[in-house]
Amino acid sequence: MRGDFFEVHPRINIIFALDVITIIVIIASIILKNIVKGIIESLEWLTSAVSNMDVVVIVALITGTVSIVSVIISSIVSKIIDYKKNRQEYLAQKREKPYGEFVAMVYKLQKNVEGDNLYTEEMMLKDLSSFSKQITLWGSSKVVNLWVEFREKGKVQEQGNLFILEELMNEMRKDLGMKKVEKGNLLAFFVNDIKKYINK
């Protein structure tokens, strides 16, 4: 019935809707006014409290706040540094074995080049497989990329690939916390007269 009444008298329906909107606006205005009034009163109280405080107390509050913030920031920075250090040490421990095995493999291959054929192809493939498995998880991105490049370019004896090999070993040293050495210095341990090929 009520719906029929409003349909029959559309003007009354419009007036009713306007009344509802007006009431909502009035209520919202009252609430907003009280909120603004509360904020103003709070600011006035805070201003009054600060103005009545002794200068020494104000300075003490500021100093205390600065000290607390400094301690929090120092603690956060310290935690970040400790995390990075512990992470680096953990990764270095995981990388030490495969990196050491790789260098040992390089020296074994060099012995074969010199005529000592004790390091068979089967042994080499086994070592390569073991190394690849370990650096899949623990190798840094640069070591992994250089290892892929080294394998794609083929034989260790090729001159250009030897320098990729050295770059790979330098990255391994870096991962373990050691500084890189100059080009040719690592190769000089097992390649004679390597210096004369550096600028070629």
Secondary structure blueprint with pairings:
Blueprint: H1 2-8, H2 10-52, H3 55-113, H4 121-138, H5 141-152, H6 159-175
Helix pairs in contact: 3-4, 5-6
Concise summary:
The protein has helices at 2-8, 10-52, 55-113, 121-138, 141-152, 159-175. It is built from 6 helices and no strands.
Defining traits:
mainly alpha; 200 residues
Please, could you describe this protein's structure?
The chain has two domains: 2-52; 86-197, no CATH class. Helix content is 78%, strand content 0%. It has helices spanning 2-8, 10-52, 55-113, 121-138, 141-152, 159-175. The longest helix is centred in the middle third of the chain and has 59 residues, at 55-113. The relative contact order is 0.05. The mean pLDDT is 81.
Mean of the pLDDT scores? 81
Number of helical segments? 6
Class based on secondary structure composition and strand pairing: mainly alpha
Tell me the series of helices and strands, N- to C-terminal. Answer: HHHHHH
The residue ranges in which pLDDT falls below 50 over 5 or more consecutive positions are: none
Beta-strand content estimate: under 5%
Number of strands: 0
Overall number of domains: 2
Q: Sketch the major β-sheet.
A: none
